[in-house]
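Illustration 12: ATP-dependent helicase.
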Amino acid sequence: MKLTKEQIAIINSSGDIKINAVAGSGKTTTILEYAKARPKNSRILYLAFNKSVRLEASEKFSKNNLDNVTVETAHSLAYKHVVFNYNYRVRNQDYKTNEIVELLKLQGNSEKHFEFVIANHILKFVAYFCNSDKRKVQELNYLDIVFDENAKKVAQSFYAQIELQTRHFLAKMDKGEIEITHDFYLKKFQLENPKLAFDYILFDEAQDASPAMLAVFLKQKATKVIVGDTHQQIYGWRHAINSLEKAKFKTFHLSTSFRFNQDIADLAMGVLDYKTHFDNSDTISISGNGTNKAFDSKAIIARTNLGLLLKAIEYVTEKKNINEIYFEGNINSYTYAEEGASLYDVLNLQNKNRDMIRDKLIREMKTMKDLEKYIESTDDSQLSMMVEIVKEYGNKIPGILKSLKEKHVANEDKHKARIIFSTVHRCKGMEYDTVQIVNDFITEDRLIKLKHSGEDINVARMNEEINLLYVAVTRTKNTIRIPEKLVPKNFPVSANIHLIKELPEKADPKKYAFPKREISETKAIPNYVEKSRETNKDAYRPWTRELDEELTVLWMEGINPKDLALHFGRTKSAINSRMKKLELFD
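Figure caption equivalent — predicted structure in token form:
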């Protein structure tokens, strides 16, 4: 791969720098070449975003004979410094609400499930503190991260108790009385002001950095390199911050994407322009230099777990021809809340089968109204999602989940999946040949209405919502199917961008926007073909890649073969034959 001028400038740079890299811009290649260009005896630390990236990066550095590079995540680095030294016991999962009630001996009051509501707020306050750069809990205002009005009223009324119990819980972990969480040992690492023995530290995905880890990073004497994409910041809800904005280093850019072509680049820039409704952020320029033409991997990407599950359920219940599917992060992670409750628990609560409920928190609820009130008091979005699905599908859920799991291929067979389902957060760093976007992202119309509503707007949260759509759009290497309402006004369609319009009750293929078909024939047309075209105007014409893609989109969106035949000007048998060749059904 020939390096760009931007990449060469980074490789030849000196001192502390930050690199703002657009999606698919060869960031990993640049980091590798930067490491190669450092003195051979340099000690280099590469901080990866998560375990899977760490393993992949370790392999790449090793293949390039860069044995002087140590690859860690923030947590793996902290683990070695803290857990080993203190002989802490580490939990695999975070604590559950009911466990906090028991550990801290929280008492109820006249309010239903009061102790569980308080425990939920304690857990959130603990996470907020552990990810912050503060040294004391009292330096933070927990209300700053509570956005739901009902939840905020509860937290405000019992703030002193929530803060005190948060400190008690942290003290129990610190003393080793109970198992510690992953966030806790990262916090402990930051508080001990470690000095890392490296000459260079490369901090990747820094747009979503833990403030605790950033504090550690910035205090090091090593030459520091921050790498990320400001517009891919999507973990603010986990208290992550954009290090690219915090660090006052010399800035470099990687603005050419090798993943997708200019059509997709233009769409990505159009989405980012939504930010101008709220602030004066400089718009970025993205050059699309991708040349991929494959259609092998197909992904459906949603903003929320609910949106994704509803789309997946639609596929298994209405599109019987899809037999191999895959969920990024495994399907179970979408049907269980972080607390441990499952869709089955919520369904059993609705059906009043309380003896069949496994989760202790859900078992405490006598009715669905109790659960909904708890959700209002805590702003628990995952439980809220489960309630919505249970209300929508009820007793069909066991059969639906069984069908989803039967169709789900193993991790090693992911390449065999006909459709890959993922939320934006779970497909971060992934790429697919073709992507379909679910209609649960924020729209420009919604942003404009918010702007003129007179309400207080949290600009950072709105920007992150826009970033989510940008990340989803930039996962594609070739084509994208996207709801029209998510696209900038008057944005042109192309061979790579297909707009999905909202359909009336009877699906009409004419409502979809596709590039104009260019049909030309140079050979003489036989009589039998002319005869057939009297009733089917495009009979016997060759199928092009664009037509195949159009056929695939319409079939996946529920257009029946009879209407497809009318739309394409062909016979129904010709449509069925082509769909079979495209493996749209068995």
